[in-house]
Amino acid sequence: MDAKKQVPSSNIQMLTAKEAGQICKISKRSWFRLSASGKIPSPVRIGGSVRWRLSDIESWLAMGCPDRKIFDAR
Is 38 left (phi over 0), alpha (psi -120 to 50) or beta? Predict the structure, then answer.
């Protein structure tokens, strides 16, 4: 039995900057500024699109919104 289970991609919810910003009650532009300065979880690039995993945003908020380096080290 494999120790790592892969979650089907259909179960992973991906958010746009606008949607992620709405969760955090900030604008899309502010979300991109935080991303550029390394203050939020790393985005996932899909083709030409940039998305964030809902699970990452929820975990990041639960951890108290640490910088990307601290969040990625979890």
Answer: left
Rg (CA), the chain: 13
pLDDT in tens, 38-53: 999 999 999 999 999 9
Q: Counting every residue, how long is the chain?
A: 74
Interval 53-63: pLDDT, tens: 999 999 999 99
Residue 7, judged by CB atoms within 10 A of its CB (0-12, 13-18, 19+), counts as exposed
Distance separating alpha carbons of residues 46 and 6, to the nearest angstrom: 18
